[in-house]
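pinned: reference chain
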Amino acid sequence: MDQSKVAKKLENYARKNIPERSPAFGQFMYHAELLRRGHVSIHKKDLKDLSEKYQQVVKDITEGRQK
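pinned: its structure tokens
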């Protein structure tokens, strides 16, 4: 899947499901920006900073299992 489309899906998920004041919201936006700029290796390395719940959400989105 195109990285810019994945980035948009991450942003959309965060806006719909995570309060803006939550650190997870910022982390989703960070990961979206990494993908948009083509920094896939950094994105994968930094996934460990998310909670397990959100790591799974990001993995599902990046692997095309969640819309």
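why pinned: The two ends are 12 Å apart (CA to CA). The helical segments are 3-17, 23-36, 40-46, 52-62.
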